[in-house]
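re: ur question from earlier - yeah i can do the single chain one, its not a big deal. heres the input i used so u can compare w yours
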Amino acid sequence: MKNLWNETDAAQVVTEYGATYGESLALCVYGSRLLGADPQLVLHGGGNTSVKGKRDDLLGRSVQTLFVKGSGCDLATIAPAQMSPLELAPLRELIQLDALDDGAMADFLRSKLLDANAPAPPSRPCYTPSFRNRACSTATPMRFWR
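and the output i got, formated as tokens:
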């Protein structure tokens, strides 16, 4: 696999989106676009990426957030607003459950959206491992290639 990451292009995306959405989300969008542009890696409309960051909740409190590619969004052209912001703390509590069916998980995820206008999070639990504490804040493999 060829590494297509380009620091100049990445910096341009951070310049475009960083002030509004934060550097981590901007870089996740850049990496997502690289992944989505390769049909050998991702089918059109498929794939998922996520990144952890912070966002203000309704009361203006900065909360840990998991930004996940919204359902139906194309990785090749994704924008930061298409990354569904989910409050992370309640998601981490799901680890306590022995089982959770896809429908219940989808309902729970929708209830933790920090932006009612954001696309729905994926209906399949493809990012469950991201709920655990990790030293790296990004779940997208592209970040490890830098």
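Residues 20 and 63 are 16 Å apart (CA to CA). not sure if urs matches, ping me
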